[in-house]
Amino acid sequence: MSDLVKRSLWGIIYVVVIMGGILVHPLLFALVFGTLLFFTQYEFYAMVEGAGHKITRFPGSFMGVIYFLLCFAVANNYIPQVFSLAFIPIVLIMFIIELFRSNRNTLERSGLTILGFIYIAGPFSLMNFVVYTSAGGQAHAFYPWILAGVFFIIWVNDSFAYLVGTQFGKHKMCPSISPKKSWEGLVGGAVFGIIMGIINAVMFQAVSMTAWIVIAVLTVSFGTLGDLFESKLKREIGAKDSGNILPGHGGFLDRLDSLLFVVPMVFSWLILYLNL
Predict the structure, then answer these.
(1) Could you give the CA distance from residue 60 to residue 45 in angstroms, rounded to a whole number?
(2) What whole-number distance in Å separates Cα of residue 174 and Cα of residue 182?
(3) What is the per-residue pLDDT across 178-230, written as a single tens digit (0 to 9) for each?
(4) Where are the alpha helices (DSSP H) in the chain?
(5) Is the overall model pTM greater than 0.85, yes or no?
């Protein structure tokens, strides 16, 4: 099997799993994205640990999933909203774990473990409030199309940024961080990403055309920043990919790095838009 065929096959499987997790059923959403969260956060810890840093790998990943499931229960109205503040005791628990470890790397271990929790578990947990938004016309109702639309914009932006950059890219955007990215690719991806936002507005009319365009602009802008941030982390660590679980695509963090910056911004915009 050629590398292109293998990459395409795994790309299709990845898209099917993501869309199935978003669209089929709320419990499948919790299962798919809770699993993705665990492996993405664990992958981040493994990558950092591989660079020689001390870290608390499994407890940090486990706490990330616990917080994600608590937010799912809050968003689904299973438990009171006050439980969304559980990140405070969870962070304290991570400090307490280090208190009873017999090592001299307390600051490094606790700091990097909490960084992984904030960087990865935080955005994943906010996804619950994006799919359980009142944009669908009913509070605490499962409305997956906004998150699905965000993924569509990310994928279109990435694809056309690559295509336009490959064909026309002459001006490097951040050569010290990501040598292949160009300003031409950025503009090309942004144009088609915003067009995808307009298409989303036609297909998913729970929010207005203007709101979808804002979502598209936020997704393109912060998705690019999220990708650059992960590229900078890998460059400083000396890693080519965050993992190899997806042949031809790297690791989960490589596939989801844009989303980690996009979700908090889209969530903030939805809160503002729905209360205007």
Answers:
(1) 9
(2) 8
(3) 878 888 999 999 999 999 999 999 999 888 999 999 999 999 999 999 999 99
(4) 3-23, 26-50, 57-75, 87-99, 106-116, 122-131, 145-168, 183-203, 209-237, 252-274
(5) yes
